[in-house]
Amino acid sequence: MGETPHRIRQEDQGGRAIFYLEGEFDIYSSPDLKERLLEAIDGGCNEIIIDLTKVVYVDSTFLGAVVRAVKKTRGHRGKVGLVISDENIRRVFDITGLDRILLTYETNQEAQNGFDRGDKPIHT
Length: 124
Description:
Elements: E1 6-13, E2 16-25, H1 30-42, E3 47-58, H2 60-74, E4 79-83, H3 87-96, E5 103-105, H4 108-116
Parallel strand pairs: 2-3, 3-4, 4-5
Antiparallel strand pairs: 1-2
């Protein structure tokens, strides 16, 4: 076993960072994402959008990275949103209950519009 195919592209928009992910995010690739998310938050981005439209697989280490980002943004009065188009990936968030602490959207534009209008997760 070794590294899994993945790609992370980051776009900063003032206090908002959008992460465009591709591939698989598991025990090998999720630490890279976690580090990038935390660096963005520490650098002043308190709104994080993670676009999963090109992601084919996530595991519990990915979920842990996202939860860590949620906790860190809350300390800065921020939030994390996910763009999820794949029903199997959406189901992971539904089953774990993470859909209640995260904002989820079907498109990147919906996510940005939701952040602009002040959407909040069910549980904050």
